[in-house]
Structures are given as C-alpha cells and as structure tokens.
Amino acid sequence: MKTVYTCFSTDVIHAGHLNIISEAGKYGKVIVGCLSDKASIRYNRFPTVSEEDRMALYGNIDGVDSVVLQNDMLYDDVIEKIHPDIVIHGDNWTTGAESAIRSHVKELLESYGGQIVDVPYTYNEEVKKIDLQLKEKLSMPEYRRKRLRQLINLTPIVKAMEAHSGLTGLIVEKTVIEGENGKLDQFDAMWISSLCDSTAKGKPDIELVDMTSRFRTIEDITEVTTKPIIFDGDTGGLTEHFVYTVRSLERMGVSAVIIEDKKGLKKNSLFGTEVKQTQCTIEEMCDKIAAGKKAQLTDDFMIIARIESLILEQGMEDALNRARAFVKAGADGIMIHSRKKDPSEIIEFCDKFREEDKTTPLVVVPSSFNTITEEELIEHGVNIVIYANQLTRAAFPAMQKTAEDILKYHRAKEVDDRLMSIKDIITLIDEI
Ligand code: SPV
Ligand code: MG
Fold first, then answer.
1. How far is the CA of 205 from the centre of ligand 1 (A)?
2. Relative to the alpha carbon of 338, which ligand is closest?
3. Ligand nearest to the CA of 308
4. Tens digits of per-residue pLDDT, 95-149?
5. Average confidence (pLDDT) over 30-58
6. Which one of 8, 247, 325, 384 has the largest count of C-beta atoms within 10 Å of its C-beta?
C-alpha cells in the first residue's frame, strides 16, 4: 500500500481540505502533516488554534490515517522520515511564491521515485468566506494584542516594519518573498513610527500630532491588517496622560508601546546632540513605567522602555544603569538606540545587558547602523528589529520625481512606465 502525504496549515477544515483527503485516499494510506507554528508564521499567517488542537482537528477527518508535525516549510524533515510515495497538494502551489516549495518537494521525491499529485484547488463561496472569517478573527484586538509576546517566543527575531497608513499597513501585511534558501519570508509586526506618522501629515516629529490623530492612524491600519502593532509612544507624555494612552492602546489591540526616556520638547533621536533634547531622570521614567503597568488591564500588553543615553552621549554605563532600573520598574522590554553608523556601541550594550539579563526582550532600530544583519542581531541577544522609516523614505523620492517629471513634460505619459498599474493597485485592496 502506498503512503500519501499532504501538509495542512489551516485552522478550519473546509471542502477543499476534504477533497484533498478524499483524492489522497484513492492512492493509499493518508498521512497529514501539520505545519508547525514556527513555520506557519513565515509561510502563511499566524495560527489562531494551537499546534496540538490543529493536529487533533486533522486527525478527526475521515480517511486520515495519522498526523505528524511538519517543522520545515520545505518538507525536508517529513520526507526524510516518512518517505511518502506521493505528496498531494492543491494546484494553487504550481504558481506564485509557493511554486519554489513545490519544485523542492518534487526534487526530493524524484530522488527515490516518489511523485507529486496536484488536485484542482477548491475555490467556492464557502471557502472564500471561511478564509475571510479567519482573517477577521486574527484582526480582532484580543487575538492581535497577545501576538507580539507569542512571536517573541516563537521566532529568533521578530521583524517589524513601519506603517503609517492603511496602504503601508497592507504592504507590511501582504509582502511575502521567496528567500535565498527557497523558504518564504514576511514581516511579523508593524511599527507605527512617530517620525513617519508625523511626516505623512507634513508635520515635525515633536509630539505635535496629537494622540487622537495617532489613534486614527492605528485604526486605519487595524481595519485592513492582522499583524501585531508596536506603537511609538514618544515620551509617553505626562504620566497622568500616559495611563490613559495605555488603556486606549490595549483596547485597540495594540501589542506594545515604546516610550523614550526624554522630557520637554522631544525631537527626533536621529538629530542626536545637534538639537536640544533633555533626558528625564531614571526616577521619572521608572514612575511612568510603573504607572503604565499598573493601569494596563490585560497580561498581553507590553510597555517597552527606550534608552536615549547613547543618542545623547551619556555613555554606556548610564545606558546599562537605566536598563536595569527600567526592568526593575516593570518594563517588559528594553529598546536601545544609537545614531552611529557603526553598530559596535549597540553590540556592546546588548552583550553587556545579556550578561546580566537573559530574558527581557531587547529591541533595536537599525536606521543608522544599517549594515548589521538580523543574524548578527540574534547572536547578540536582540529579540525585535524595527525597520522604522524605510517605506516612507522609499516613497517620498519616487513621488517627488514623478511630480517633477509631469511638470517637465506637461503630461503624464513619460512617467507611466514607473507607475503601478491601476489594475494592480485595485487588487491590492480587499473587498468584503
Ligand atoms: C521613529 O520611527 O519615529 C523613531 C525611531 O522613534 S527614530 O526615528 O530613529 O528616532
Ligand atoms: Mg519616534
């Protein structure tokens, strides 16, 4: 009897999955793989049902002989273990980013005479509806809010990209690439940068854009995405105000706020000491952190303390002292910032911090020290990397050049080649 293998990553079984099992049964004994959480977050979307429950769900389908956990998106682990005669899959993986996975599986199978069977993908109204409902569930505050903590435990480094509008949120949500290793990759989370949120409104990054407006940006993004959100809370404002901000952010399903240890008129950190910026005392910051932690109502929400000592040239010892104190005051994570091109002061901080504290999540924003790779950050104990402003900086020159060229040519034809087609921009937006 032949062994037939298929891999599922779904949280809900619909007609498409049942069809695959029934087709698989025609060839032999059916083994279903459950794609692990770790692999799912890179391949598809965050699961809303635990690995154990998904395995039980698949095992209950009529016609399934057994269920195994598949850890490798490329099937290497299960193919080595099971040596299936046939791998069966919906034919949706013959095109797009997933086709690389199919080619890899085909090669593995052909090395010992196995084969792939593609069955026509079931795409009816019911399947469409289930897909939409799953997405909706992921976007709900109670699911989204806890996801950052889950991701920190699941992946060596959480990759956050800035978003300042529904459209940039969609780019962070939907961009999936086939990496050099043949595996799919995508961002894990969104950073709502004060710099980019302000810039999009043509305003300076000095806490001028008020919280109501910043919350509106969050809502624009939450309405069209499912990934977790890290909010740039600037200084957090007055402690008496910050506690309200914490509650509002929790209610909106934001996972974390990062507040920096500055007071008075906040300027963007990348100005460093070129402009007047005042660091608050350790006590002032600790009070704000403690008040925020006391105010929050869920266990999911994180308050991350950002240290500006290196930006303001106060030295490594000051940065480390602050980190110790902020963690003691209840901070759920530490963000260390630097405006140097050379990452060595960030590395030094991370190594020294990790000597004493093995668990508190560490966050970095490599805008200036952009040569450092995610792999190196992982080696130095970093848990979250934030790409804080690159989408804004990419879009601005493209828009400016297009505006200049339309003025220059007195028509739009000359710029057309570099524009996204109307058809593509329309299909980027989901309709209910
Ligand atoms: C932001 O993105 O607004 C930040 C990071 O706070 S930085 O601009 O580097 O200060
Ligand atoms: Mg900021």
1. 9
2. 1
3. 1
4. 987 899 999 999 999 999 999 999 998 888 888 888 888 888 899 999 999 999 9
5. 93
6. 384
- CA–centroid distance, 366 to ligand 2, in Å, is 13
Which pair of tokens denotes residue 319?
């940065």
**CA gap 384, 393 in Å, rounded:** 21
Confidence (pLDDT) at 235: 98
Conformation bin of residue 388: beta by default, left when phi > 0, alpha when psi is -120 to 50 = alpha
The one-letter amino acid code at 209 reads V
Provide residues with CB under 6 Å of ligand 1: 193-195, 205, 232, 268-270, 365, 367, 388-389
Q: How far is the CA of 387 from the centre of ligand 1 (A)?
A: 10
What is the C-alpha separation between 107 and 422, in angstroms, rounded?
A: 39
- Residue 263 falls in which region: left (phi positive, over 0), alpha (psi -120 to 50) or beta: beta
Q: What is the pLDDT of residue 416?
A: 96
Determine the Cα–Cα distance for residues 258 and 277; give it in Å rounded to an integer: 18
Catalytic residues: 205
Q: Which ligand is nearest to the CA of 234?
A: 2
Going by alpha carbons, the residue nearest to atom 7 of ligand 1 is: 269
Q: Taking the CA of residue 305 as centre, how many other CA atoms within 13 Å lie in the half-sphere pointing to its CB?
A: 33
In whole numbers, what is the pLDDT of the chain averaged over residues?
Answer: 95
Ligand 2 centroid distance, CA of 430 (Å): 30
Ligand 1 atom with the shortest distance to the CA of 198: 3
CA distance 202 to 255: 27
Q: Which residue in the block uniquely carries the two structure tokens 């695959």?
A: 20
